Amino acid sequence: MPEEFDLPKITLEKYVKLNAPFYPKFSRETLDKCLHGFNMDANILLDKLSMGQKKKAFMCFALAANTSLLIMDEPTNGLDIPSKSQFRQVVSSCMDDNRTIIISTHQVADVQNLIDHITIIDGKKCLFDRSVMEIEQKLSFTTSAAENAIYTQDNLGGKASVCKRLADDPETPMSIELLFNAVLIQRDKINEVFKS
Predict the structure, then answer these.
(1) In the chain, % of residues over pLDDT 70
(2) pLDDT tens for residues 93-104?
(3) Cα–Cα dist 116/132, whole Å
(4) Which of 123, 124, 141 is nearest to 132 (CA)?
């Protein structure tokens, strides 16, 4: 699913009728569930939709195609705040063990609760590649400056830090933005934590 695309001057229903045969596992049930999640119906005219509405319609079709691999490029660009919430609900309802969904985005807060693996790539170089479970077991994310911090950054109203999680430290929710900045600035120190 590309970030930008054009849709023809037809209804979504007609689009589905023309394109669904190319996807052997296409599910009308999934399409209807996704459309319902976005408060849309199949009779919408695709060329009359706003960018965000077009994105939601195309996303419904892409999820209903039931491919084993779905790549989404910036899926939340153009979506308003309520639509971003709907996006998370719709995508999570379509996730299962038989499908891999790769989301490339700069809007990390929009997908934080959907992901189970993070890969950070810079050009052709893989800087970081770990599961969320592994990250939360090895790192601690705090909203203060910590003495044992691997990386600290200024935040509104204070500091935020990434630290090596010690055995008796409670598990903290991961901050993708903080992790990303830590990997860019302190990649060797962050990766060293995962060797032990």
Answers:
(1) 97
(2) 988 888 998 888
(3) 5
(4) 141
Contact 139, 174 (CB under 8 A): yes
User: Where do we find the tokens 């055995």?
Assistant: 167
**In terms of DSSP H, where are the helices of 11-170?**
12-19, 28-37, 51-64, 81-93, 108-111, 132-138
Q: How far apart are CA 178 and CA 118, in angstroms?
A: 13
Long-range contacts of 105-110 (CB under 8 A, 24+ apart): 105/72, 105/73, 105/74, 105/75, 105/76, 106/74, 107/74, 107/76, 107/77, 108/176, 108/177, 108/180, 109/176, 109/177, 110/76, 110/79, 110/84
Length of the chain counted residue by residue: 196
Query: Can you tell me the distance from the alpha carbon of 143 to that of 161, in angstroms, rounded to the nearest whole number?
Result: 6
* pTM of this structure: 0.76
At residue 24, what are phi and psi to the nearest 5 degrees?
-60, -25
